[in-house]
Amino acid sequence: MTVTAAAPGEGPLAMICGGGSLPLAVADAVAARGRRVVLFPLRGAAEGTPVERHSHHWIYVGQIGKFLRLARAEGCREVVFIGALVRPSIWQVHPDLVGLSFLPKVLRAFRGGDNHLLSGMGKLLEGEGLRLRGAHEVAPQILVPDGVLGRVQMTERDRADIALGLDYLHAAGPFDVGQAVIVAGRHILAVEAAEGTDGMLARMAEMRANGRVRAPRGAGVLVKAPKPHQDRRFDLPSVGPTTVEGAARAGLAGIAVIAGETVIAEPAAMTVAADKAGLFVVGVRGPAS
Amino acid sequence: MTVTAAAPGEGPLAMICGGGSLPLAVADAVAARGRRVVLFPLRGAAEGTPVERHSHHWIYVGQIGKFLRLARAEGCREVVFIGALVRPSIWQVHPDLVGLSFLPKVLRAFRGGDNHLLSGMGKLLEGEGLRLRGAHEVAPQILVPDGVLGRVQMTERDRADIALGLDYLHAAGPFDVGQAVIVAGRHILAVEAAEGTDGMLARMAEMRANGRVRAPRGAGVLVKAPKPHQDRRFDLPSVGPTTVEGAARAGLAGIAVIAGETVIAEPAAMTVAADKAGLFVVGVRGPAS
């Protein structure tokens, strides 16, 4: 993977923003590098995000025509899609004429799990003169670095669990299934698919509570990695304080992600949360990188 | 896989029985073939099973010495382990002297997911003069046959989902993860690990209810297969009426399992339940067989 540093000379960056803390973290990181950002927060997903600190235009998911017009007027030639978009109801879509033609692809693009559609989406936008970039390209400082982030270190047992998890994710990659597993004592205890990482962590907590999993608390690692052939412009794995909270409730020892290929939301807050919970967070080099 | 039909001349069969309806279904099937069975229902797991219709001796999980003595006294030279044993608390183990030496292995054997330990358990029992057999060997009529079981047929779309599910399970096999996935529209929506098949089906129902999965009801297949190198004497996948109920609540189109390598609890009840719910149940030949 080549990380290209964004230069101010590239003009303002359009960012279509779903929910969660990640979009603003990326926007701030891009702005900190001296590049202007223009946010396009999505109605029904990005409410509550303090978008006011950047230029912004609220849009409905379906308003592709409006987005293209405004992005051009703002002088944007590059666009990033970022953030969660769960369950846009049909009333939140509001397609304009251009949106009507894009609509099915947009909805599926945000759902994740389909590289072909996402790449197709990129091609369509490029046909409109906009280049699709990954958050990791425009704000490389938001990527998880190599090594342990906080004060808690891994044990040898954790390393073995991480190695097994990475091997599994690599083998499962061609099936376009989830990006994460929980491994404890060299057993895979949970595999992420449509439920998402937070859902899987909640299940792990439940399985410990009901005795289905008897591994002691403080054993087990959340291992998260991009799919081997994933288009990193769209769907880079991300972790943040919420991930730490979920992992702590699940009784895990720590979290391992791929250095340089994982976005970290609120790194300072995440490190504090991990130290407080006694969890390690580590960026490793995986078989997929 | 070679299926060896059990002959009455092999003497009575000892069956160590956990919970669920499967142990008695197997016992009845063995008895129907003219072979006497001696049940060893496990306290804390098999309560509620109407064991009275066969010879039986209640034992605690840890009473291996008692089991060996009684099994020999009954003239048994072969033993089958079958049924669920979730969460035996430490007070339910009651190890005798022999049990104390076997204990760690027994507990782990019932947990599933570790072929080496299970095979080791088989070797240990063989050292005691007992041969460990699989339920599929002693009662081949309890295996799912080739083809559709009830009245509901598969569509081409279902076939494609089944093929993808089997490919995934084959690829994931070396990782000793779960035996089942849910596939809809050629997307893997759920992967089973420590939560078990019923847990995964419940999650799928929940993901439909909360909108996380938007596949229409009546789409998606539960695909279940033995692990590629699984010791089939211990841990053959099983399905039954409960599986049908779970799949119906999850809004699936049907259930696909490997013919000849899947145990079916209460086949008649399961077929009735599937027909009533409008689900297909099919035995297929998988890449693992």
Automatic annotation (TrEMBL), chains A, B:
Gene3D superfamilies: 3.40.140.80, 3.40.50.20. Signal peptide: none annotated. Residues 13-141 form the LpxI N-terminal domain. It comes from the Bacteria. PANTHER family: BLL4848 PROTEIN, LPXI FAMILY PROTEIN. Residues 145-282 form the LpxI C-terminal domain. This is LpxI family protein.
